[in-house]
Amino acid sequence: MKNLSQILLIDDEAHNRDALSLLLTHAGYQVETAESGEEALEILRKTPFEIVVTDLFLPGVSGIDILKKVKEDSPYTNVILITGNASAESAVEAMKEGAFDYITKPVNIEKLKIIVAKALEKSRLVAENLYLRQQLRGKYKFDRILGHSLAMQQVFARMERVVNTDSTILILGDSGTGKELVAKAIHFNGPRKDKPFVAINCGAIPADLLESELFGHLKGAFTGAVADKAGKFEVANNGTIFLDEIGTMPLHLQIKLLRVLQEQEVERVGSSKTIKLDVRVISATNANLEETVKRGHFREDLYYRLNVIPILLPPLRERREDVALLARHFLQKSCREMKRPLMSLSTEAMIALETYDWPGNVREMENVIERSVALTDGEIIERRDLPPNIAGVDPRGMQQVLSPRITAEGVDMVRIVEEIECGLIHEAMALGGGVKARAAALLNINRTTLVEKIKRLKLDVEKI
């Protein structure tokens, strides 16, 4: 059997030790034994164990001594104590020292196997949680947000200043600039990194459901409220809540949000009981909130409460010096995920990327690179392998697909017209945020006509 779970069994009575070792081995565990506390500590210095099963009363170094040492050196190792009936009270006291559980003599092997299985499950869950947290911390380190332009260096400097504070932050930037990534980087590099990070897109949830999502509700508070539910603020308690697209929040909820921010407490829908909170709030918007305030669609007092420390993320077209860095990063990432040898971008392809305006910003670039990796046969991505709306930008700035010249050999007009249509459709979809109705309006055609063209040209517009 592979990957057996390791158990250290400690008992000074040979017949008990041998019997339990045999039974646990037959149950599928890898068991090592020790006949004294001193021997056990020597083994523990050399070998890690997931579970330690020890008699409570041992000559010399006791089971309690072993428990304390294990918890000091390896807090995620679970310790199970074995004790005589008369000493059950002592075993319960040992639980306060961090023992996982105890079992009395004579040992019921079925009960012991159940306790061991539960202890093993807990050890693995804790280890997995620790690993995931380490992964998250690595994933959201500042150096994972790429950019050597002056604009991005200013963003990094602002992030460094606020990461260890509890100040409320408003992240401003166009769609696709990485606002949530910045919010996560601030959270996972700050003092709340081991607490929840809860994100909610205020624009993606219907207004009549948003209040319940944010603040929770009691059973029966409204039709469909079949059970009590904690809101996102409660779930994020002691951690960070990220309110994306905050500018879309209805006015009546803005009033309640303002009170939550001012009082640091929340009331569930249908309840008059207040729940105290300790939550850091980071919000984000791609809208001009000052203009929204002037139009009366966003409360001025809430705007100032949210905009304590603003972080402005520049669009990609304003930091073209970062395009090559980002393109190579996404190229490595896509090749790794698709298990392909590392590819490269030709000079013309790179210049085309740097010339393009990137209305969808960093998110659009990631999708473009992923698509190009998937559809390119060779190891070099040429300009022709990029989407038509990007490949149509001539690297010398002299000619575009939209204005081809007829040579003596003639031209393939059908192909050129299709390339023009492809480029215009991709650009309209990007500018329209992936919504076909908006893209059709930009092209001055009906939505059904746009859908028919997408099908005829076999365009992949889902990742735009």
Strand-helix topology:
Blueprint: E1 6-10, H1 14-26, E2 30-34, H2 37-46, E3 51-55, H3 63-73, E4 78-83, H4 88-95, E5 101-104, H5 109-139, H6 150-162, E6 169-172, H7 179-188, E7 197-201, H8 207-215, E8 216-217, E9 229-230, H9 232-235, E10 240-244, H10 251-263, E11 265-267, E12 274-276, E13 280-285, H11 289-294, H12 300-306, E14 309-312, H13 323-337, E15 344-345, H14 347-355, H15 361-375, E16 380-381, H16 388-391, H17 413-431, H18 436-443, H19 447-457
Parallel strand pairs: 1-2, 1-3, 3-4, 4-5, 6-13, 6-14, 7-10, 10-13, 15-16
Antiparallel strand pairs: 8-9, 11-12
Helix pairs in contact: 2-3, 13-15, 17-18, 17-19, 18-19
Overall 3D form? extended
Number of domains: 4
Termini gap: 48 Å
Count of separate DSSP helical elements: 19
Helix content: 40-55%
CATH architecture of the largest domain: 3-Layer(aba) Sandwich
CATH C-level class of the largest domain: Alpha Beta
Q: Mind describing the biggest β-sheet?
A: 5 strands, parallel
CATH superfamily of the largest domain: P-loop containing nucleotide triphosphate hydrolases
Subcellular location: Cytoplasm
Organism: Desulfuromonas soudanensis
Main location: cytoplasm
Keywords: Activator, ATP-binding, Cytoplasm, DNA-binding, Nucleotide-binding, Phosphoprotein, Transcription, Transcription regulation, Two-component regulatory system
